[in-house]
Amino acid sequence: MLGEPGKGGALADFAENVLAAGQEARAQAQTAPTVFVGRGADGMETGLAGSIHTEVVDTLGARNVAAAAGRDLLARISMEQLIQWDPDVILTQDPNFFQRLQTERVWKDYRAVRQGRYHLVPTVPFGWMDHPPCVNRLLGMLWGLHVFYPELWPQARYQQAVIRYFDLFYGYTLTPEELSSIDRLQS
């Protein structure tokens, strides 16, 4: 459409490779982690099964703990419900909720918090998971591969793929130090 078939082909190839890496990780992983995606300042809003807000989690084969609570929407849940689910991993794009996970006593007994498996999803230059719904979800998939399956996607492999993404999609040469800075801001 823009008269750049070579560039379009390179972007499409990259996207297909990320999707294939997700399928490969799903097939190779011993177990898929259970994941809660907390939205909002209190973290008590989440995407249900089929929600675009948890699409990255679903695509990578992780199990959205809220999937059984309904389909295709966002929903508010209670602390009691989250206690019952007790996810392996908690994700959020909200810095307020992330801060609460670190400081409020009520969160200390959750397995994900005890084990240090709670993360603020990167948002530079845009959200990597669900907001806005765009091509940045490929970054979210790369990040998720590293977070969910670190034995299959170690730091070096993850960094190399993200740096390649920035080069292809943004025409920006992201340095490993800049990427580390993005990740430090987020976790």
TrEMBL record:
One of its GO terms (biological process) is cellular response to iron ion. Residues 1-156 form the Fe/B12 periplasmic-binding domain. PROSITE patterns: FE_B12_PBP (PS50983). Pfam families: Peripla_BP_2 (PF01497). It comes from the Bacteria. InterPro entries: ABC_Transporter_SBP, ABC_transptr_periplasmic_BD. The lineage of its organism: Bacteria, Pseudomonadati, Pseudomonadota, Betaproteobacteria, Burkholderiales. This is Substrate-binding family protein.
